[in-house]
Amino acid sequence: MEHVHLAVEEDDLYSGYNDYNPTFDSEELENDVGFQQAVRTSHGRRPPMTAKFPGTPIGPRSLASSFGARLHMASSMGRPMTGAVQDGSARPMTAVKAAGYTSSLSRGSAFDPLGQSRGPAPALEAKNEDTPEEKIKILEKKVNDLIEESCMAQSMGALQVALEKAKEAGRKERALVRQREQSGSADHINLDLTYSVLLNLANQYTNNEMYPEALNSYQIIVKNKMFSNAGRLKVNMANIYFKQKNYPKAIKFYRMALDQITNAHKEMRIKIMQNIGVVFICMGQYTDAITSFEHIMSESPNIKTGFNLILCYYAIGDRERMKKAFQKLISVPLGIDDEDKYIPSNEDTSSNMVIEAIKNDKLHQMERDLKTLAEKYIMTAAKLIAPAIETLFATGFDWFVTAVFFFASKDFNAVETLKAFEKKDSRVKSAAATNLSFLYFLEKDYDQADRYADLAMNADRYNPAALINKGNTVFVKQDYEKAAEFYKEALRNDSSCTEGLYNLGLTYQRLNRLEEALDCFLKLHAILRNSSQVMYQLASLYELLENPEQAIEWLMQVISVTPTDAQALAKLGELHDGEGDKSQAFQYYYESFRYFPSNIHVIEWLGAYYIETQFCEKAIQYFERATLIQPTQVKWQLMVASCYRRSGNSQKALETYKEIHRKFPENVECLRFLVRLCTDMQLKEAQDYATKLKKVEKMKEIREQRIKSGREGSARSRREGRESSAGSADSGRSSSSTKGERLSAKMRSLPGSNEPYEASSPKELDASYVDPLGPQMDRPKTGVKKRVEDDDFADEELGDDLLPE
User: Fold this and answer.
1) In the listed set 301, 316, 334, which residue is the last one of a domain according to the structure?
2) Model pTM score
3) CA-CA distances (angstroms) from residue 95 to 47, 101, 102?
C-alpha cells in the first residue's frame, strides 16, 4: 500500500471565497490594541513606514524593468506608498499647494504644513519718531490726554490736581505750536485744541477761586477773532465778577453776552436775563429787576423767576402787584405727568409691569423733586405775602386760598396745602376748614363740604363764612327752611355779610316768598349800588310779580353797568315784545345778537321779525346762522328756502329745496314744495318728485299703522296731538302777553302741508317748530357771584367771603 498513490482531486472552485484579510475586519477594531493606541496618540498621525520585505532593509523594494530602470514599489502589492521618497523628494500629500505642502522637500523632512519650523515672524519695523509729523501727533495726543485727566480730577474733587494738569496741557500745547512753526506747517494749527486748553485752564482757575488768572484766560479767548462764538464766554466772566461782588461789571458783561446771542437761543437768553435780575436785586435796584423778571414771566415763565418777582414786589411794598405775581407763580406749568399715570390697572399685566418699572426711576424722581420745589416756593411766597397784602393775617390768608383755587393748576394740591393750616390756632383753623368746605362744595363733594363746614363752626361759631357754607350744603339738599336759618344766623353775626343776604334772597325765592326775597335784594342793593347781579335779581322778581315796567327799569340799570350783557339785552327785548313794542324789542334783540350771535332764541325772533315786516332777504342770514348752529334741524333750512320763495327767487329756492331733500330724503314738506316749484317752472323733475312724495307718504302711513292700533285711533291721536300743541302754544302766548315776559311765537314762515302755494300772506309759525334749547340759559357771570334764574341754583353761587370782591 505504500506504493499506492491516490488520484489527485480537482481543486474546489469556491475555495477561499469566505477567506479575507483580518486587517479589513472593522468589527474587531474596537479590540485591536494597536489601532486604539494609534487613535488616542499621535502615533496614528505619523507618516506610515515603508513595508518591510523579509531579508531586506526598511525601504522601497527595487524591481527591474525592461527599461533597465529601478522602480521603487511602495508595498508588496505594487501600490505607491504615501509619503514615500521618490527621486529624492517626498510626494505631496495634497494637490492644494496653498495649504502649506510642497513637493520640493527633501527626503526625511518632518511633516510641517503650517511652516512652524521656520520660527517666529520677524519683529515689526519700529516707527521713526524723529520725523516732525510723528512728533506733532504725539504731542497732540499728550495734550488731549492731559485735558481729559484734568476734567476727571475736577469731577472727583481734586481741584489742585486738575489745575496742574490744565497748566501742563497749556505748556504742551504751546510746545506743539512751536513745533508746527518750526516744521513749516503753521497753517495747520489745531484751533479747537487751543480753545479747549484755554477754556479748561480758565475753568480750573475759577474752580480754585483764582479769579484774576481765570479772567485773563477768558480774555485771551474772547479777544481772539479766530474762535467762533467766543462771546458767550462773557457770561462766565460776568459770573466771576458777580462772585467778586463787582455788580456793575457783572451787569455790563451779562448784557454784552446777551447782545451776542441771537433770538434762536431763547432759553440761553432767558437764563442770562434771569441772572441780570438777580444782580439788580443784589444792588437794591428792584425796579430794574422787576423789568427783567416780568419779561421772563411773559416769555417763558418758571417757578424761580416768579418767586423772585414776588420778592421784588414785597421789597417795594406793592400789594396789588404782589397778588398778580402770586397768581402768575401758581399758574406756571411744570410740564410733568399726572400721578394717575403711575397707578396700575387690574387688567393689563404687561402695563402693570411697565408702571412698576418706571414709577421709581430717575425721571419720576426728578418730576417729584420739581413738584416738591414748586410747592416749597409757593408756600414760602404765601407765608411771606399773606401778612403784607392785607392788614390782618387771616384776611391775607383768605385771599391766598382764593387765588390758589382759581389759578392753581392740578400740579399744586390746594387741599393738602390748606390742611397744613389746620394745626394753627382756632381762628386760622376755622378759616382753613371754611375754605376746605368751599373747595369741596365746588367739586360737588357735598358730604366733605358739610363735614368741614361743621368743623369750621365748631372752631368758631361766630364765623359767618362757615355758617354760609353750612347753609349752602343744606340748600343743595333742598331743605330751604333750614338753609334760611343758617343764612339768618350769619347775618346776625355780621350784618354786613352781603353773601348771606344774597343767598337768603335766593332761598326765599325758592320758597315762593317773593316779597321777602324782594326785601332782601333791595337791602342788598342799598349796600352794593353797582352790583349787576343784584339788579338782575330784582328785575327777575318784579317779572315774577307781574310788574314788567319795574322789571324793565331794573334791567335798564343792569345795562348801564354792563352794556355788553347779551342775556340782559335779550331779556329786555322779550319784555318789550310782551308789551307790544316791536321796534324797541327789535333794538334790544339786535344788540344781544351783536354781542352773542349764537343764541338760537334771539336768532329765531329776529328772523320772524324780518319775515313779518316783509324783509325776507334779511331774514335769510339769521336762519342760515341757525342752520350752522343746529345742522340736524330741518326747520331752519326750510325757513331759508321759504324766504327765497317769498322774495321771488324761485331758482335759489328750488336749489335750496333740492339740497334739503338730499340731506333729508323723507321730509314730506320739502317734497311738496319741490313738486309745486317744478310744476310752476314746468320742469320734468316734477313727476319724479311727485312719485317720491307718494312713496314717502305711503311709508309714513304704514309706519304710523304699525305704531298705532288702527287708522282711526292713529288719526285721532294725531289730531289730538295737534290740537294740544296748538292749545299749548296759544296758552303760552296768552301767558306771555299777560305777564309781559315771554317771546311771541308769531313769525312768518313757510306754508304748511295744506297751504296753497300762492299764499303769501303772513302765517302763524307751525306749533311743531319748538325751540330745541328749552329754558333760557343763565346770564354769564360779570362779577364774583353768578346770577340765578327763576328755577336754577348754581353751585358757583357760594355766598361766602372767600370770593374776591
Assistant:
1) 334
2) 0.43
3) 17, 8, 9
